[in-house]
Structures are given as structure tokens and as C-alpha cells.
Amino acid sequence: MRNLILSAALVTASLFGVTAQAAEPLEAGKQYVELSSAVPVAVPGKIEVVELFWYGCPHCYAFEPTINPWAEKLPADVNFVRIPAMFGGIWNIHGQLFITLEAMGVEHKVHKAVFEAIHGGKKLATPEEMAEFLAGEGVDKDKFLSTYNSFAVKGKVEDAKKKAQAYQITGVPTMVVNGKYRFDLGTAGGPEGALSVADQLIAKERAAK
């Protein structure tokens, strides 16, 4: 786990670096990696953009003000999906938290608050601690706990782990377009560069239809 966390830090070390790379012609093996086997998308017929993240990752937290407005303006033929990276320990606990909030249909309401709480010093390391915090955000405590421990959520946790393995990620934040192209902020040249690469790969997939 230590090596994986170190990888996450190294991969995203250039978060605030220049975006000069994104201005160069898009090239597999440079700004992005083309996966050897395409991973099925969640909604067939739509171009999928995945962001793999961890609530405890400072670079993911810093990426939020950049990626959120972009994701909100994506056209109707693009499906934006967040998948929590789970490399063990607290990563898995926070990943299950995210999936629980999604299952309850409240993730969009409290996602920012959860990020801010964790980076403000709250560990949110147990379901009870999470439930207590979320109650202050309007989420029913008992419903959260029952959903967190449900068979359905545990199944979705396993699905998320398998997806991350299929994408062959080594750190976060990492993005994947249409189950085919993987890149991170380091290879893309920073936050804006990552979105530029995503836009170009979306256009590439749209043109291939």
C-alpha cells in the first residue's frame, strides 16, 4: 500500500505544472496510454469519461474546482463517472463511503462537503463517524449505516475494484475515456491539460462512431 500511495503522489506531482504538453499533437504513449483491452462502459452508446479518485488525495481535492464545472457542461452523448480507487485500508473505507452515497442518491449533494471535511482534518474512518458527520449534511444516519453495510453496496465495491484493476491504474487522479484511453495530470500537463486531452479523446471517439 505504501508503494501505491507513493505512486499516487508521484503520478500527480505535476498537478500545478504547465500545460504545454496538452498543446502538442495528441499521441498515444505520450499524453495518454491506450489500454490493450477496452473496458466495457456503464452506458452503451455514450462516450464515457471516468475519473478515478480518493477522498483523501490532496491532488484530487485540488482538481475538484477544475473538473466539476467541466463535467457539468459535457454534452448529452458523454457520460461522466467517478470511481473510487481502492488500494486497501482507508482507501477502501472512503471508497465504500462514496459508493454508499451514490446508492442513496445523495452523492451530488454531499460530495464537496465530504472532501472538505477530510481535508479539514476529519478522518471519517468508521461508518459511525461518517454517519454522524453526514447527519449534519441532511443524510439520514440509520439509512446511511444500513446502506453502507448492504450486500448491494459491497457488490458495487467489488465491481469498482475490478474496474480500477482493468484500467491498470497506479495512482490518482486518473482519467479514462471510453474504457480505452488512460491518462493522469502528470502525462497530460496539469489539470487544464487533462481536460484538454479528455476533450480531444472524446472528439476522437465521437468521430469514430
From TrEMBL:
<feature type="signal peptide">
    <location>
        <begin position="1"/>
        <end position="22"/>
    </location>
</feature>
<dbReference type="GO" id="GO:0015036">
    <property type="term" value="F:disulfide oxidoreductase activity"/>
</dbReference>
<keyword id="KW-1015">Disulfide bond</keyword>
<dbReference type="InterPro" id="IPR013766">
    <property type="entry name" value="Thioredoxin_domain"/>
</dbReference>
<keyword id="KW-0574">Periplasm</keyword>
<dbReference type="InterPro" id="IPR023205">
    <property type="entry name" value="DsbA/DsbL"/>
</dbReference>
<dbReference type="GO" id="GO:0042597">
    <property type="term" value="C:periplasmic space"/>
</dbReference>
<dbReference type="InterPro" id="IPR001853">
    <property type="entry name" value="DSBA-like_thioredoxin_dom"/>
</dbReference>
<keyword id="KW-0676">Redox-active center</keyword>
<feature type="domain" description="Thioredoxin">
    <location>
        <begin position="9"/>
        <end position="169"/>
    </location>
</feature>
<dbReference type="Pfam" id="PF01323">
    <property type="entry name" value="DSBA"/>
</dbReference>
<comment type="similarity">
    <text>Belongs to the thioredoxin family. DsbA subfamily.</text>
</comment>
<dbReference type="InterPro" id="IPR017937">
    <property type="entry name" value="Thioredoxin_CS"/>
</dbReference>
<dbReference type="InterPro" id="IPR050824">
    <property type="entry name" value="Thiol_disulfide_DsbA"/>
</dbReference>
<keyword id="KW-0732">Signal</keyword>
<feature type="disulfide bond" description="Redox-active">
    <location>
        <begin position="57"/>
        <end position="60"/>
    </location>
</feature>
<protein>
    <recommendedName>
        <fullName>Thiol:disulfide interchange protein</fullName>
    </recommendedName>
</protein>
<dbReference type="InterPro" id="IPR036249">
    <property type="entry name" value="Thioredoxin-like_sf"/>
</dbReference>
